[in-house]
């Protein structure tokens, strides 16, 4: 692909028809990749939604370079996974995916959102903190190669999106 010739960036809903693409992206990012069937099953389930970031080049087909998968349940949501393809990391695509997801959750009147993150992934932890997520504990069995994950929580009730809460005044 011709990097640098992208004309537009799209954040759009993703459904089970993209399961193979999602599995391929996920497999490039995590030691225990989810299969195409697992993605298809998740995306067909009630209360599960996904957004993808696609780049539209001058020539050729749009390329999926990242996605986020979310599960809604009652008044809470969980970010199940978020992936941005390695060459496109650090360009704001993860933030775009998270902001679109949080806007959707806010419109759905979701009270809070949780996620698990590798505490050694400084870029991800920094992104989540900048969006207002706060540490809420630890979870065992994050990945096969990790003992635990940092659990983070964002209160979505009555707070403008896109801004971390103000510090002590």
Task: Please provide a written account of the structure.
With 169 residues, this protein is α+β, with helices and mostly antiparallel strands. 25% of the residues lie in helices and 35% in strands. It has four helices and seven strands, in the order E-H-H-E-E-E-H-E-H-E-E. It is globular and about 45 Å long. The model is unreliable at 163-169 (pLDDT under 50).
Give the helix/strand layout:
Blueprint: E1 6-13, H1 19-27, H2 36-44, E2 48-57, E3 63-73, E4 76-84, H3 93-107, E5 112-117, H4 122-130, E6 134-140, E7 148-155
Parallel strand pairs: 4-5
Antiparallel strand pairs: 1-2, 2-3, 3-4, 5-7, 6-7
Helix pairs in contact: 1-2
Average pLDDT reading: 87
**How many β-strands, per DSSP?**
7
Structural class: alpha+beta
Using only C-alpha atoms, the radius of gyration works out to 16 Å
**How do the strands line up in the largest sheet?**
1-2-3-4-5-7-6
Enumerate the spans where pLDDT stays under 50 for 5 or more consecutive residues. Answer: 163-169
| Helix proportion | 10-25%
Shape summary: globular
Number of helices: 4
Beta fraction of the residues? Answer: 25-35%
- Following the backbone from N to C, one meets helices and strands in this order, namely EHHEEEHEHEE
Largest sheet: 7 strands, mixed
How far apart are the termini? 49 Å
């Amino acid at each position: 692909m011709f990097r640098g010739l992208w004309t537009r960036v799209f954040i759009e809903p993703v459904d089970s028809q993209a399961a193979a693409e999602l599995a391929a992206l996920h497999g490039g990012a995590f030691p225990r990749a989810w299969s195409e069937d697992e993605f298809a099953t998740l995306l067909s389930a009630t209360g599960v939604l996904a957004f993808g970031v696609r780049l539209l080049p001058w020539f050729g087909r749009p390329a999926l370079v990242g996605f986020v998968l979310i599960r809604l349940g009652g008044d809470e949501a969980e970010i199940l996974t978020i992936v941005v393809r390695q060459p496109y990391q650090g360009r704001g695509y993860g933030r775009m995916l998270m902001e679109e997801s949080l806007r959707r959750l806010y419109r759905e009147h979701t009270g809070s959102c949780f996620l698990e993150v590798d505490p050694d992934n400084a870029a991800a932890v920094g992104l989540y903190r900048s969006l207002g997520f706060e540490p809420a504990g630890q979870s065992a069995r994050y990945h096969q190669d990790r003992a635990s994950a940092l659990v983070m929580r964002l209160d979505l009730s009555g707070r403008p999106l896109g801004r971390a809460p103000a510090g002590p005044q």
